[in-house]
Write a structure and sequence with these properties.
Shape: elongated
Strand content: under 5%
Structural class: mainly alpha
Number of helices: 3
Largest sheet: none
Order of helices and strands: HHH
């Protein structure tokens, strides 16, 4: 079995499918560019330090998970 280059495979496609390939490649390029622009921000850093004496980080993670799942033990 011979190895076919990507360019050869694209050229073998009908023109309408070549357009779809072009659109998909543009989409991938845009998505990659957006990921590069988004840098992590830590504006929230230190926001929970007053809870440090009440909860461990693991307890906070579990509490957040419960809230996201819709379970709130303080509501009962």
């Amino acid at each position: 079995m011979t190895e076919t280059s990507l360019q050869d495979m694209i050229q073998a496609l009908p023109p309408e499918l070549q357009d779809e390939v072009r659109d998909f490649v543009e989409f991938l390029s845009e998505r990659k560019a957006k990921k590069r622009k988004a840098k992590m921000r830590f504006a929230w850093q230190g926001a929970l330090k007053d809870l440090r004496s009440q909860y461990t980080s693991v307890e906070l993670q579990h509490r957040i998970s419960d809230i996201r799942a819709g379970f709130d033990e303080t509501a009962t």
